[in-house]
Task: inverse folding
C-alpha cells in the first residue's frame, strides 16, 4: 500500500518491506481495468485463488513460476489468502488476468503476543507492535485449522501479514498462530523504522520493542552497524525471548527500489502524506493522479490513511521515481452497507429496521436527504409507513458482538428499486458445498443468471466464488428481498 522512495519517517510505511530490493522490470502497456497488456508488477493482498488474485488480477501460476517465501525458495502450497505479496509477471490484454513469473511472500511480523488481545477495539500487541484487525482479516492456525481472535492468548506466537497506516500501526490482512514454536529457540522477526538509536549502548527501537545489536556478532545484510540511522527501514531477526527486548542475530537493511522509469506498477496501501488531491504518497512512493480515473471516491476523498489501490507507470522526474496513475480506486471501509426500503424507525430507542436488520444510530451518525431536499434531515424525517416507505442507503460499523451502528444514513427515493436491494457485510454460515449463506443474519440464496465478481470489476465463475467464500469474508449481494431472504442476481467477494 505504500511505495515511497523519499526517506522521511512521516512518509514511509512498513508496507515497503515487501517492495524492498525489487529488481527492475521493464515493459510497456497498462494494468488492470482494460487496455493493452504488458510486463508489470502488482503488490497487494491475495484475495482469492484461481491461481491467485491480487489487486483484481488473476495471475496464473505455472510450473516455472518462482515462489519466494521469507527469502527462501517456496512452493505454490505456501500461498494463502490474506498474504501480502509482490507479483512480477505479464498482464493480459483483458486487464483482469495474467501470468506470474515470480511471487514473493513476506510477513511483516512474527513473534509472541505481548498483551491480552483487545477484542473490543480489535487490537493485538505483538512484540511491542500494534496490530489492528478487521472482520475481513484471515485468522488461521499454521498448517490448517480455524481460529478466531478471541482464541488467541498472551504468549501465543503469531505470524502477521498486513499493511501499515501512517502511524505505523499494522492493519492485518492475515494472522497465523504458529504451532510447535519454542521461545527462545525459533527465529522471531520484526520489520520497521529505526527509532531511539543509541550508538554507544548499541540499542534502538522498532515501535515499543527495544533491540540490542553487537557489531561483532550481529550479521548485517546490505550494510554495517555504521549504516544504522533513525528512520532507516530494517528487518531484524533474533531467537531469544523478546520480553525484555530482542537481541539481534541478523539485521537487514531494506533497499527500496520500485523499479525503473517506464515500469508498470500496481499497488495497494494507505496514504501516508498529502500535498494535494492529485499529489500524495502511498506506500512510500509519490503518486501523480492528475490524469487518473477515480473509482469508489473522488479527489476530495484523498486523505492520510485512506486505503487505496493505484495503477500506473513509473516516471523519472529529476531523479525521483513517481507513479503516474491511470486509476485510483478507494477500498471500501470494513463494515456493513445496506440499500433498501426502511421498515421501521424507533426514534426514542435510536434504531431503524431495514432488511429485517436492526441498526442503531447516535449523535455521530450523519443524515442526508438526497431526494427530498430536507435540510437539516434526521431520523425523525424518515417515513417508515407502508407502502410508501423511504429508500435508504445505510453505512454501519459492526462491533465484536455483531451489533450495528449507523455511521451514515441517506434517503434517496429516486433510486428506489425493490428488485435491486444491496447488502454488504461479513458472511456467516458458509456451507461446505455451494449453497445459501448469511450476511449479518439475512439469508442469501442464488437467483437465476447470477453474476459472480471479485470486487466490482473482475468476473469470476460460481465455483471460484464459493471456493473462496469463507466465514467473515466480506460479500456484497444484490437482488430482491422478501421474508428474511435476499435472492441474489449478483454476488461480489471483496478484493
Result:
Amino acid at each position: 500500500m505504500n511505495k515511497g522512495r523519499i526517506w522521511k519517517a512521516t512518509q514511509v510505511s512498513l508496507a515497503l518491506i515487501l517492495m524492498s530490493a525489487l529488481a527492475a522490470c521493464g515493459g510497456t502497456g497498462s494494468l488492470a481495468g482494460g487496455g493493452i497488456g504488458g510486463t508489470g508488477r502488482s503488490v497487494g493482498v491475495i484475495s482469492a485463488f484461481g491461481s491467485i488474485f491480487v489487486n483484481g488480477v488473476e495471475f496464473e501460476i505455472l510450473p516455472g513460476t518462482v515462489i519466494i517465501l521469507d527469502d527462501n525458495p517456496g512452493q505454490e502450497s505456501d500461498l494463502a489468502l490474506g498474504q501480502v505479496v509482490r507479483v512480477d509477471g505479464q498482464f493480459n490484454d483483458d486487464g483482469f488476468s495474467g501470468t506470474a513469473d515470480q511471487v514473493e511472500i513476506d510477513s511483516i511480523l512474527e513473534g509472541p503476543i505481548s498483551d491480552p488481545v483487545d477484542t473490543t477495539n480489535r487490537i493485538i500487541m505483538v512484540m511491542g507492535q500494534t496490530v489492528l484487525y478487521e472482520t475481513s482479516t484471515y485468522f488461521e492456525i499454521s498448517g490448517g485449522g480455524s481460529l478466531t481472535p478471541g482464541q488467541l492468548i498472551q504468549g501465543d506466537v503469531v505470524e502477521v501479514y498486513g499493511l501499515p497506516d501512517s502511524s505505523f500501526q499494522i492493519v492485518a490482512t492475515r494472522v497465523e498462530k504458529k504451532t510447535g514454536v519454542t521461545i527462545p529457540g525459533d527465529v522471531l522477526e520484526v520489520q520497521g523504522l529505526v527509532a531511539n538509536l543509541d550508538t554507544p549502548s548499541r540499542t534502538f527501537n522498532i515501535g515499543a520493542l527495544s533491540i540490542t545489536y553487537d557489531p561483532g556478532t550481529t550479521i548485517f545484510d546490505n550494510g554495517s552497524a555504521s549504516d544504522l540511522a533513525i528512520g532507516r527501514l530494517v528487518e531484524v531477526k533474533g531467537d531469544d525471548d523478546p520480553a525484555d527486548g530482542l537481541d539481534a542475530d541478523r539485521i537487514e537493511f531494506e533497499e527500496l527500489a520500485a523499479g525503473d522509469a517506464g515500469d508498470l506498477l500496481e499497488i495497494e496501501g494507505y496514504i501516508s502524506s498529502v500535498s494535494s488531491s492529485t499529489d500524495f504518497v502511498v506506500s512510500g512512493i509519490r503518486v501523480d493522479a492528475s490524469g487518473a480515473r477515480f473509482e469508489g471516491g473522488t479527489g476530495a476523498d484523498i486523505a492520510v490513511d485512506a486505503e487505496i489501490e493505484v495503477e500506473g507507470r513509473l516516471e523519472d522526474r529529476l531523479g525521483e521515481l513517481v507513479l503516474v496513475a491511470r486509476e485510483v480506486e478507494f477500498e471500501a471501509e470494513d463494515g456493513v452497507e445496506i440499500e433498501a426500503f426502511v421498515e421501521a424507525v424507533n426514534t426514542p430507542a435510536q434504531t431503524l429496521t431495514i432488511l429485517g436488520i436492526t441498526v442503531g444510530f447516535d449523535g455521530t451518525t450523519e443524515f442526508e436527504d438526497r431526494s427530498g431536499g430536507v435540510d437539516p434531515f434526521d431520523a425523525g424525517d424518515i417515513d417508515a409507513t407502508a407502502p410508501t416507505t423511504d429508500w435508504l442507503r445505510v453505512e454501519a460499523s459492526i462491533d465484536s458482538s455483531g451489533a450495528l451502528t449507523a455511521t451514515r444514513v441517506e434517503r434517496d427515493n429516486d433510486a428506489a428499486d425493490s428488485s435491486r436491494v444491496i447488502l454488504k457485510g461479513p458472511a456467516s454460515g458458509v456451507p461446505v458445498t455451494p449453497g445459501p449463506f448469511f450476511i449479518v443474519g439475512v439469508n442469501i440464496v442464488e437467483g437465476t443468471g447470477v453474476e459472480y465478481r471479485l470486487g466490482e470489476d473482475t468476473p469470476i465463475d460460481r465455483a471460484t466464488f464459493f471456493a473462496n467464500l469463507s466465514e467473515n469474508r466480506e460479500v456484497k449481494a444484490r437482488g430482491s428481498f422478501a421474508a428474511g431472504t435476499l435472492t441474489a442476481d449478483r454476488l461480489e467477494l471483496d478484493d
Observations:
- The two ends are 14 Å apart (CA to CA).
- The chain has one helix and 38 strands.
- Residues 336-415 form a domain with the OB fold (Dihydrolipoamide Acetyltransferase, E2P) fold (CATH 2.40.50.320).
